[in-house]
Design a protein that fits this description.
With 163 residues, the chain is mainly α. The chain has one domain. The protein has 6 helices and 2 strands, in the order H-H-H-H-E-E-H-H. A hairpin with a 5-residue loop joins strand 1 and strand 2. Helix 1 runs antiparallel to helix 2 and helix 1 runs antiparallel to helix 6. It is elongated and about 80 Å long.
C-alpha cells in the first residue's frame, strides 16, 4: 500500500470479510439445535461483526476503526447491543455481565463453586434477529465508499455487478 487511500480501501475490504464471516456463522447457527455449537456460532458472529468497529492497526493511518456512519440509524440500537455483547461477554469476561455467585460447598472438604448467568443465550438470540439485515446494510454502505476509493486509486469508475 502506497498511501492512506489504498490503506483505507484495504481496510474496508477486510471489514467486508469480517461481515461475511459473521453472516456465515449466523446461517450455520440455524443448522443446529440451540446448545453449545449454536453458542459458538453466535459468539463468532458477534465477534466478527464487532471486529471492524474496534481498534485495528494499520501502516499509514493507525488506528483503523470503522465509523458508525456505515450503520443505518434504524439499526443503531442493535449495533450498540452487538458491540456491548462483544465487549462484555464474548471477547472479554466482564464479571458484571456474567453476574457470578460464589458458594462454599461441603462440610469436611470445603469447595468453592462459581455459578454465573447462563440463561442469556436465548435472550441474545432473540435480540439479534435482525443482525443479518444490519450486516447487509453496512456492507452496502461500505461498498459505496469502496467504489469512490477504487476510482481514486485506478482513475476509472467501477460498477457493482450482480446487485
Amino acid at each position: 500500500m502506497k498511501n492512506e487511500t489504498e490503506e483505507e480501501y484495504v481496510f474496508l475490504r477486510t471489514c467486508t470479510s469480517d461481515f461475511y464471516m459473521a453472516e456465515k456463522s449466523l446461517s450455520l447457527m440455524e443448522d443446529f439445535e440451540f446448545g453449545y455449537i449454536q453458542f459458538v456460532f453466535l459468539r463468532d458472529a458477534v465477534i466478527s461483526y464487532g471486529r471492524p468497529f474496534s481498534k485495528n492497526r494499520g501502516i499509514h493511518n493507525t488506528p483503523h476503526r470503522l465509523n458508525t456512519e456505515y450503520v443505518p440509524d434504524k439499526y443503531s440500537q442493535l449495533h450498540d447491543e452487538i458491540l456491548r455483547l462483544r465487549d462484555t461477554l464474548f471477547a472479554h469476561s466482564d464479571i458484571l455481565e456474567k453476574n457470578p455467585k460464589l458458594a462454599l460447598l461441603g462440610d469436611t472438604r470445603p469447595i468453592l463453586a462459581i455459578s454465573h448467568n447462563g440463561s442469556y443465550l436465548s435472550e441474545i438470540k432473540e435480540s439479534l434477529e435482525n443482525m443479518s439485515v444490519l450486516i447487509a446494510c453496512v456492507q452496502e454502505n461500505i461498498r459505496k465508499r469502496q467504489l469512490v476509493l477504487e476510482k481514486n486509486i485506478t482513475g476509472k469508475t467501477h460498477r457493482v455487478s450482480g446487485h
